[in-house]
Amino acid sequence: MNAEELPDPPVDGESEDSGIGERVNAVFTAAEKAAQHIVSMAREEAEDIRRQTRAEADALAKQLRLEADREVERILAEARAQGEALVEEGRARARKVEDGARIRKDRLREEIRLLEERISWAQEGLREVTLRLFPGESEQPADEGDSDSEPL
């Protein structure tokens, strides 16, 4: 304050009021400084909380990613196992079909062999009957006659 701005010297009652006003101003100034200090501390605390929250969020995100990766691996392993089971089931079915086809093929070959054997017996029987019925024709070789057809 400048000398020009100084108020007139207080009169007895005014000096008491003036001292109270200065004290009130000092209290307000101290309160403002305390408030600024509290706001500053609150900002620092808020920044600490933000940093801590970010760190916790990063840690939680990392943990969730790890759990998700584990879940993906579990699902993939399960899918592989199911795929392998399906492949094995397909192979087993294919072996069963192949075995059935092989058995049927063997059965058909046996039936063909038996039919050929019967045909051979029938041809032999017909030759014997022919020889009995036509004893004079036995001198002709069996290859004469139809050369394209097999003898009965």
Shape estimate: rod-shaped
Helical coverage, percent range: over 70%
> Biggest sheet: strands, sense, closure?
none
- Find the count of extended strands (DSSP E, 2+ residues): 0
Q: Structural class, from secondary structure content?
A: mainly alpha
On the 0 to 100 scale, the average pLDDT is 85
The total count of helices amounts to: 1
Question: Which stretches are poorly predicted, pLDDT < 50 over at least 5 residues?
Answer: 144-149
Order of helices and strands: H
**Gyration radius over CA:** 59 Å
List the helices and strands and how they pair.
Layout: H1 12-133
Description:
- The protein contains 1 helix and no strands.
- It has one helix at residues 12-133.
